[in-house]
Amino acid sequence: MTRPSLAVAALAAAFALAACGRTGETAMPSSPAPVASASVTGTATYRERIALPADAELIVQLADVSLADAPSTVVAEQRIAPVRVPSPFTLSYDPAQIDPRHSYAVSARVERAGKLLFTTDTRHAVLTQGAGNTAEIVMIKVQPH
């Protein structure tokens, strides 16, 4: 063996011996456990035969709607722009956030520059109390004031 080869071999042996001497340690750093995820899917649409402005945005939310006298808690949200009709959506969430005793619903709205154009007027229950994980949402046009 040449001198550089001997040096490389000696270094490799030293690293191998050092690694063997450490009990309970791994050679690779551990990474945090991945968060489990699940999703609610569906489509959002409206009946009117009108085109939306190019800068309109569809906002779909999964929320805990258990308390009638308190604001709902948003669990997941997806914003879609430009809006195409019908618009498929996927709301990914952490299943650990879902309490089987609570009620969850999906809602959708279309906004343009903060102004509401379309919204849901029907409750679309999902996830608990016998509801599935899909929702087909039909929004209604909001009348200007």
UniProtKB/TrEMBL annotation:
Keyword terms, alphabetized: Lipoprotein, Signal
Signal peptide: 1-18
The keyword Glycoprotein is assigned to this record: no
UniProt-recorded name of the protein: Lipoprotein
Natural source organism: Inquilinus ginsengisoli
